[in-house]
Amino acid sequence: MTKTIFLAAGCFWGAQHYLKQIRGIVETETGFANGDRTFNEGAAPTYEQVYTDRTGYAETVRVVYDPVVLPLEKLLRLYFLSIEPTSVNRQGEDEGTRYRTGIYYIDPADRFTIDDICHEVQQNYSSPLAVEVAPLDVFYAADESHQNYLDKHPDGYCHLPAALFEMARRTNS
Q1: From CA 108, how far away is CA 89, in angstroms rounded?
Q2: What is the band of 104 on the pLDDT scale with cuts at 50, 70, 90?
Q3: Which domains does the chain have, with CATH numbers?
Q4: pLDDT tens for residues 55-67?
Q5: How far is 55 from 59, CA to CA, in rounded Å?
Q6: By CB distance 3.0 to 4.6 Å, which of 46, 70, 76, 160 could disulfide with 14?
C-alpha cells in the first residue's frame, strides 16, 4: 500500500531529484498545485504561465511513498532539510509565489502528523514557518521536459547542494 503527498520546495527540478533519492519513495512527478482554477479557464497551466506568478500555482512534487519503509514523519523531516522554512516565496536564488513552500495532503488524517512535524521544526526558528499547509485542491503535471530534469541535464541549475542528494541516498540504507 502506498500513500501520496504533494511537496512544494522551491524549484521542482531539485526537489524532485532530492526526494526520489530517498528509500521508500516509489514515484515522483513535477507539477503545479493549489493555484487559481479559473486561470486558463480550468485547463492545465503551462510552465510559462506559472512562471509569471499570476496563476497562484506552486511548483510542486507529487510524492508516492511506502509508509512502511518511509513513515510520513520521516519523509517530512527530510523535506524540511531541503528548504529554508521561514523564507516567504523564495528558496535559494529563486523568488516568486511559484517557489513558495507547501505541504498539500489528500488524506485528512495526515494533517495531524504534518502539524506535529511543523510544530517540532518551529522550535528551531525564532521566525514563524512560511510553509503553506493545506488540503490539495488541484495538481497539474508539468510537461515531460520538466520531469526528472536533473537526470536529463546533470549540469542543470539547482538551488540545492549536491551534498543533500548524497545524504538522501544514504537515508534509510
Answers
A1: 25
A2: very high
A3: 3-170 (3.30.1060.10)
A4: 999 999 999 999 9
A5: 11
A6: 160
